[in-house]
Design goal:
The structure is a single chain. The protein is mostly helical. It contains 21 helices and no strands. The chain is globular.
Length: 499
């Protein structure tokens, strides 16, 4: 196996393990903490993470550019990057420490006044750690970066568990998270290659890094920051308990997102090659096929959530969060657009500036819709705003980037196949939903899991049998993603060459 394959496998394994840890830990926190405690926990993370995004300035992303400059000393590059990261992180840290009482009053949650001054110190540590992790990746120490992520996550979960289970202290929860971040920074620096240790501070180089990273950081604020707006609006207009309910409903299924990201990563190199050749027709066909594959996974999952959203939430988070189910059902509609990488054509064409304006518009629109809809619809209003803004964002990114290859957004979607997949999913789900209502059975993980398996199995079988998923292209992607050979052979024999 090549080094690149080993690195890819390590990244996928690390992401999968961390996702599993977080998926298992979330219901523990939801069941153990009261609504007020969990809402406060979420609000502290919301405020601190949002500030971190605003002040990261894209420094961990542009460090690759400076490492690749042979005229620069790698140690000096890292030292300047870490110095600026720490200093920029100290700005919101000092601000949150001084105005934690005010923020607590604004959110009508006095608990923030005690907890924000503790956890805000995670900002400079987190920003610096991002640059160190990027350094490990650049210098081909990817497996160490994955090991670092897993170890720090396990340490964080362990310390939170002790803080909650043994001491019942929310203060110690954030102190434990701060300890975890400190260890992450220390080990990241220790595992960094010797060539980046030492160096000297160069004010001009530091300014160059800030100037280079600022546009990327601004795009990050607009692109990622707008997803925090709904939580901030809920905290401002509703109670801490309402925020806890909203937070546990407003999430996308991580494994499904990971699948879509893997499909996008699998075709990105081909898109770059085809773009350089000017073969725009094959780009269109490749994206169209990949969208059909992703949609064939997303649509059945979304349909199941529409019918069984409440049992899923109750099974996962307990009856205490049954009111999160409407938010979860609405928010899950976002999965319908997670069928392609809407930024891929910007990447391969090297035209990234338009994204700043697109994300800026969506940021403002999302804020306006959140304020309006929360007054009209209550806790479900921000979820509707998130869905609307994500759909508009996807449309704008796709429409604008398609100009680089002279295509329309509709050229990428096989409406006939997508319609068939949708009606097939609904047709299979309806009988199960009817039986569920008639039986009125108690919600248990076994029953919900059994219903999902009985639903999804025939849906995928018929999708593959009638080639609604572009079986040949899917087979090609599975081989590129290094799925075990026995599985790919079985897939080929059953759905591509049954004779």
């Amino acid at each position: 196996m090549s080094t690149r394959s080993i690195d890819s496998a390590a990244i996928l394994f690390g992401q999968g393990l961390n996702t599993l840890i977080n998926l298992l830990f979330l219901p523990y926190l939801s069941r153990t903490m009261s609504l007020t405690e969990y809402g406060t926990y979420g609000q502290v993370i919301l405020v601190v993470d949002f500030c971190a995004i605003v002040f990261q300035f894209g420094l961990y992303k542009i460090i690759y550019l400076f490492y690749s400059d042979a005229s620069l000393d790698p140690a000096t590059v890292l030292r300047n990057n870490l110095t600026v990261s720490f200093l920029s992180g100290l700005i919101p840290t000092v601000g949150l420490s001084l105005f934690s009482d005010t923020i607590g009053d604004i959110f009508e949650n006095p608990g923030l006044a005690t907890l924000l001054p503790v956890y805000c110190w995670s900002i400079p540590l987190a920003l610096a750690s991002q640059s160190l992790v990027a350094t490990l990746v650049y210098f081909k120490r990817i497996q160490r970066s994955v090991k670092l992520a897993i170890i720090s996550n396990i340490v964080k979960v362990g310390l939170i568990f002790i803080a909650v289970q043994v001491f019942g202290s929310l203060f110690l929860v954030f102190l434990g998270m701060l300890v975890s971040l400190t260890l992450q920074f220390v080990f990241a620096f220790y595992w960094a290659p010797d060539v980046v240790k030492g160096g000297s501070f160069d004010r001009k180089l530091a300014i160059r890094q800030v100037v280079a990273g600022f546009p990327i950081g601004l795009t990050g604020v607009m692109g990622t920051g707008f997803r925090y707006i709904d939580g901030i609006v809920v905290s401002l207009f509703l109670t801490t308990q309402d925020y806890a309910v909203y937070r546990n409903g407003a999430f996308e299924l991580p494994f499904i997102n990971a699948l879509a990201a893997s499909i996008g990563a699998a075709i990105l190199p081909d898109l770059a090659i085809l773009y350089n050749k000017g073969d725009y027709e094959r780009i269109t066909e490749l994206k169209k096929k990949s969208i059909r594959i992703a949609a064939a996974v997303m649509i059945p999952v979304v349909v199941f959530i529409l019918f069984f959203g409440k049992p899923l939430i109750v099974t996962y988070l307990s009856e205490k969060y049954a009111e999160s189910s409407p938010v979860f059902i609405i928010y899950s509609l976002i999965l319908l657009i997670r069928v392609t990488d809407y930024q891929s054509l910007f990447v391969v064409s090297g035209q990234n500036k338009p994204q700043v304006f697109i994300y800026g518009f969506i940021f403002i629109l999302n804020l306006i819709l959140n304020v309006i809809l929360i007054k009209i619809m209550g806790i479900t209003g921000p979820a509707v705003a998130a869905v609307v803004c994500n759909f508009i964002l996807a449309y704008m990114l796709l429409k604008y980037s398609n100009r680089y290859i002279g295509k329309k957004w509709s050229d990428f979607f096989d409406t006939r196949a997508l319609t068939h997949i949708t009606f097939l999913s609904i047709a299979v789900a309806l009988p199960f939903a009817g039986l569920w209502c008639l039986a009125g059975r108690e919600v248990t993980p076994v029953i919900v899991a059994l219903i999902f398996v009985l639903y999804i199995t025939p849906v995928f079988h018929f999708i593959l049998k009638y080639n609604l998923m572009e079986n040949a292209t899917l087979y090609h992607m599975l081989t590129k993603m290094r799925v075990p050979t026995k599985l790919t052979r079985f897939f080929h024999k059953l759905y591509i060459d049954p004779n």
